[in-house]
Amino acid sequence: MIALAGQYSLLLGLIFCSLQVIILGLGLKLNHHKFIHYGYYNINGQFICILLAFFLLIVAYIKSDFSLKVVAENSYILQPLIYKIAAAWGNHEGSILLWILVISCFTFIFYHRNQSLDQKSRSWIMIIQGFMNGIFLLFILTTSSPFQLSPLVENKGAGLNPLLQDPGLALHPPMLYIGYVGFSLSFCFAIAGLITGKINHIWASALYPWVLFSWLFLGIGICLGSYWAYYELGWGGWWYWDPVENASLMPWLAATALIHSLRVLEKRNILKKWSAFLAIITFTLSLIGTFLVRSGILISVHSFASDPSRGIFILDIIVLISGSAFLLFAFKAPLLKETIQFTFLSRENSIILNNLLLCTATATVFLGTFYPVFLEFFSTLKVSVGPPYFNKTFGIIIIPLGLIVIIGMEVAWRKDIWKRLWRNIKLLVISISLSLGLLLLISTENLETIFGFGLSLWIIMGSIHHLTQRLKIFILPFHKSLIIAQNLPWRFYGMIIAHAGIGILLLGIVGNATWTQQIDFNLIPKQTVHFADYNFHFDALKKIDGPNYTAYQATIFVYLQSTHEKILELFPEKRLYLPDQTLTSETAIGRYYLTDIYTVLGEPNTQGIWNIKIYIKPFMIIIWSGFIAIIIGGFLCLVSILSNKKKGNMIYV
Question: Which of 152, 195, 361, 369 is 20–30 Å from 8 (CA)?
């Protein structure tokens, strides 16, 4: 029953999407307002049908309805409820349905909330959104239906991949998809703008919150994925330049450039072509990320099931959607005129430079991710591109990008002079130079570490410096600075916090990369070993039973070598999941001030001696703090913009 209802819901959703495209298209062609109005009705219809299909799939998982193939292959009767629900998007079919639901949801909200654009532009956006959702519905109905019946009678289910049975993975995909799919709206804005010729400050103002919203959620998704990889995979790292990680990073970087270029367009009515191009490329990278995860062309620790036939279909979608968009851009972009002039030393120029560096960083990640694929396609050679390539190339781009972040905030719009800029940043440059010189004199660390710390200090202190200048602290009496602070929009504070967050993140990365230590021990209970500044006492080992697994849990006490004070109790586990007998390691991580002490219980040998891996990882809390600061900054910007739009104001900071 669920299978039939779900399949018909998807089919009906496809019909509504088709009607949305056809009727709106006819309405625009005939300039018939009633037709356009009727076309809009289908937006509600397709959203309700797809929402119903997704709801039915969740119900099938909760009820353990193993008559559905996808439920039988990805759920287990004794699985905790949260993972039964999360299993709905923890596989190819369910994740594509979630993707379609998010597109439909964005279309629905845009239709009901966005009134700032003219009817023609709105209709074109709805047509393109409807077309894209229709293509994906066709894809799911023909190759990836989650409502396909199982050929075998299954009583208990094969179970979800144990690595996905984690709260981080329950939340990570929805956050990521909101980000990925949200960029479909910026893509539609670009196409509609190119068709109508209306790419201007109103277009940028209408698009900005959608891009910021998607950027924010993609950032949250990346952060959750990184945290999950850190504590769940047991390899001790938080970023590996894995192809799937790169797939989410590329559109995030391009969207960061788009956010900055939209700000220039919104304020100065320039960068029209560039903003449209970035909007197209950002969603294209989102589609490429989807292809990367599902085509099976690259191996990843957390890609979904691979299927070349599905990969070919997605490749066709990319060629059709993005190819058409770039072709349209080639014909229409030259017609967009920009007349406003600005000098070399201006905020406009610094943002353009910022954009070019972000695009270079994106291209670097793209090249490193796809080079092995291209090489294998055009020759018989097989190579892999690992973290050393990304660390070196990305690291080189980060240096000028970090410098320009602060200079860009200080330089004036349209025209500035070096003398005024130097007067503004003189104290900052001198204090950072002195700090860097001091570090070089007293530190035994390598130059890369010292300059990494210098750059992160430049970004953090530069952000604070800009805040104090704006509030005129130390220039005006305190109460007057307080009045200025109260009148500044939250968007300004969001910008400061997000930029400072980049510096904090960089500080954490440099410190963590420099001082991380790791070692493997073979131990039996009651043994103690010494490592770094700590003593590790393997106190006990016990067997425990979970809802769908059994496990051995170790108790490890951590003492300071200097004082013999017990600072942590850690409980790493080795789990055996039912029903497929998969072994996993559950890490135990404790924090002592700025340092994470990270333990992984391996497997015992025939003499009952257990392998225990220990990592000493300083500055991890700084890395997470940097992520959180960037997200808080983005959130404040979004709230500020939405609040001012509601009041009918336009704000610039």
Answer: 152
579 prior amide bond cis, ω within 30: yes
Rounded to whole angstroms, the Cα distance separating 358 from 401 reads 8
Listed in sequence order, the residues at least 6 apart from 252 whose beta carbon sits closer than 8 Å to its beta carbon are 179, 215, 218, 219, 222
Sequence-distant (6+) residues with CB within 8 A of 296 are 303, 306, 307, 308, 311
* Residue closest to 87 by CA, chosen among 190, 162, 23: 162
E strands in 195-335: none
Q: What are phi and psi of 610, to 5 degrees?
A: -95, 140
**Long-range Cβ pairs for the range 380-383 (8 Å, 24+):** none
- CA 8 to chain CA mean position, Å: 33
Contact status, residue 524 vs residue 553, Cβ threshold 8 Å: no
Q: Give the Cα separation of 265 and 269 in Å (integer).
A: 4
Contact 352, 395 (CB under 8 A): no
Pairwise CA distance, residues 493 & 68, whole Å:
50
The amino acid that residue 557 corresponds to is: F
Residue 99 CA to residue 295 CA, distance in Å, equals 16
Q: Round to whole Å and give the CA distance between 54 and 88.
A: 9
Average the pLDDT over 592-596 and give the result.
95
Closest to 273 measured CA to CA, from 343, 328, 222: 328
Antiparallel, parallel or unpaired: β 549-560 and 573-577? antiparallel
Phi and psi for 242 in degrees, rounded to 5?
-65, 145
pLDDT in tens, 372-394: 888 877 777 777 788 899 998 98
Residue 314 has pLDDT above 50, yes or no: yes
**What is the Cα–Cα distance from 460 to 3, expressed in whole angstroms?**
54
Report helix, strand or coil for 603: strand
Token pair 């200079």: residue: 407
Distance in angstroms (rounded) separating the CA atoms of residues 129 and 182: 11
Give residue-wise pLDDT tens across range 318-338.
Answer: 899 999 999 999 999 999 988
Cβ neighbors of 337 (< 8 A, separation 6 or more) are: none
Chain segment 190-245, per-residue pLDDT in tens: 999 999 999 999 999 999 999 999 999 999 999 999 999 999 888 889 998 988 88
535 forms beta bridges with: 530, 559
What is the value of pTM for the model shown? 0.94
DSSP 8-state symbol, 163: G
